[in-house]
TrEMBL record:
<feature type="transmembrane region" description="Helical">
    <location>
        <begin position="6"/>
        <end position="26"/>
    </location>
</feature>
<dbReference type="InterPro" id="IPR036188">
    <property type="entry name" value="FAD/NAD-bd_sf"/>
</dbReference>
<comment type="similarity">
    <text>Belongs to the lycopene cyclase family.</text>
</comment>
<dbReference type="InterPro" id="IPR010108">
    <property type="entry name" value="Lycopene_cyclase_b/e"/>
</dbReference>
<keyword id="KW-1133">Transmembrane helix</keyword>
<dbReference type="GO" id="GO:0016705">
    <property type="term" value="F:oxidoreductase activity, acting on paired donors, with incorporation or reduction of molecular oxygen"/>
</dbReference>
<keyword id="KW-0472">Membrane</keyword>
<dbReference type="GO" id="GO:0016117">
    <property type="term" value="P:carotenoid biosynthetic process"/>
</dbReference>
<keyword id="KW-0614">Plasmid</keyword>
<dbReference type="GO" id="GO:0045436">
    <property type="term" value="F:lycopene beta cyclase activity"/>
</dbReference>
<protein>
    <submittedName>
        <fullName>Lycopene cyclase</fullName>
    </submittedName>
</protein>
<dbReference type="InterPro" id="IPR008461">
    <property type="entry name" value="CrtY"/>
</dbReference>
<dbReference type="Pfam" id="PF05834">
    <property type="entry name" value="Lycopene_cycl"/>
</dbReference>
<keyword id="KW-0812">Transmembrane</keyword>
């Protein structure tokens, strides 16, 4: 073993969304911290766009992450067979390439270990690489993404294509859900479109389905949907600039035990995501802020303290998710023919309830609102779904 006597303050394992945000926050709050970011791939989390809503984070958090934001829009729209609606809340996106370059500028090249060195062992305060080199830190943060996530639920699967158009598309704000497309009986499907530049659009075919990946037939069908959608909107597609395929779990129930093994875990590794939308960027910002604030209160980072802080955060997060697990069960175990009606009903609710839903901040009043009025599922259907279908 090659033992290295140098101690980093933090080693962040996995330069995905969460550890990148944590590195950014730590650097902003305490520039003198020594942070090492280790990634399996050659850059940050492949080629990705992560979006969030204005009210998902506080105004001070907006100021902090402003340099990371690649695209922003003052509002967004949704489209359903019965109505189109513009929602007057900002929408923002961060591109992994931009995040990568911001971090490199901020941390310096010596703080990155990319590629070719796989991690063999992780302990709370050290890692062992495949060349048998040991690197020490006051605290290791494991953000290596999903691992053997076994759950009861469905998946959100995507094919997103960023297209260059021969003429301007004329779209000024994102369409985060266009559900006017043909629906199949066993999935809920919509198109998500982000106008990136006047001639460039990100068009994503999104489905909530029982399948965890796009089969070749589904992929072909998604490409066809995207092209048909562009044609319908008179967008002349010229060249694909970027493509992303992905899958997010949408669970019906909380996993009982989070196995920590005394290592600080974050992000998907720690089950930290909004269980209905599958998104996690705003939650990452919140935890990154908590960790960074802690780092300013001490001269030496203590992993035991951080472990407690992160565990507390996870438990609080899981409590907030209970209502979303219930919504997932109601939505996905109900008759698939009512999926569109449920979504349409949801987007007819007041803007405040919609933004609280995305922000993980539903009040009791919002929850009552979601189930009052004329929801497309009757109380009887809901109880049947919760108690019988789920227990089966
Ligand atoms: C198509 C798609 C679109 C999405 N859009 C959004 C969105 O708009 N907004 C949003 O909030 N969320 C979105 N999500 C969800 C979001 O991507 C995840 O919640 C988020 O990436 C989780 O972050 P993470 O850091 O836990 O994991 P990841 O971002 O997956 O990062 C894990 C990193 O660890 C690295 N790694 C793995 N093993 C090792 C190892 N042994 N050594 C070193 N490195 C390792 C991986 O290469 C990876 O870079 C989307 C997901 C998909 C699939």
């Amino acid at each position: 073993m090659k033992k290295n006597n140098y101690y980093w303050d933090f080693i962040l394992v996995g330069a995905g969304l969460w550890n990148s945000i944590i590195a950014w926050y730590l650097r902003q709050y305490k520039p003198k911290l020594n942070i090492l970011l280790i990634e399996l791939n050659s850059s940050i989390s492949k080629d990705h766009i992560w979006s969030f809503h204005q009210h998902d984070i506080s105004s001070s958090q907006h100021i902090f992450i402003k340099p990371l934001i690649t695209y922003s829009w003052p509002s967004y729209q949704v489209k359903f067979p019965k109505f189109n609606r513009q929602i007057f809340s900002g929408y923002y996106s961060i591109c992994s390439k931009h995040l990568n370059s911001c971090l490199k500028q901020n941390l310096g090249n010596n703080n990155f270990l990319f590629n070719n060195k796989t991690i063999e062992i992780i302990t709370p305060t050290s890692i062992c690489l495949n060349n048998r080199e040991i690197i020490n830190a006051n605290c290791i943060i494991d953000g290596r993404g999903l691992k053997d996530f076994q759950f009861k639920g469905v998946y959100q699967i995507f094919l997103g294509q960023q297209w260059y158009l021969s003429s301007p598309h004329g779209l000024n704000i994102p369409i985060i859900m266009d559900a006017t497309i043909n629906q199949k009986k066993d999935e809920y499907r919509f198109i998500y479109t982000l106008p990136l530049t006047p001639n460039s659009l990100m068009i994503e075919d999104t489905r909530y389905t029982k399948k965890s990946f796009l089969t070749p037939d589904m992929l072909k069908n998604s490409i066809h949907y995207i092209q048909e959608y562009a044609f319908k909107n008179k967008w002349k597609l010229v060249k694909i600039e970027r493509e992303e395929v992905g899958c997010i779990p949408i669970p019906f129930k909380n996993k009982k035990i989070i196995k920590f093994k005394k290592i600080v875990c974050v992000g998907l590794r720690a089950n930290l995501f909004h269980v209905t939308t599958g998104y996690s960027l705003p939650i990452a910002i919140q935890l990154a802020e908590n960790i960074a604030k802690y780092s300013t209160t001490t001269t030496q980072i203590n992993f035991i303290f951080l472990l407690k802080l992160v565990k507390k955060f996870i438990i609080k997060h899981q409590k907030k998710q209970r209502f979303f697990y219930l919504l997932n069960r109601l939505f996905f175990l109900s008759n698939p023919r009512s999926h569109l009606d449920i979504m349409q009903y949801f987007y007819s609710l007041p803007e405040k309830t919609i933004s609280n839903f995305y922000a993980n901040k539903l009040s009791l009043f919002d929850k009552i609102r979601i189930f009052s009025g004329k929801p497309p599922i009757s109380l009887f259907q809901a109880l049947h779904t919760i108690f019988f279908k789920f227990i089966k």
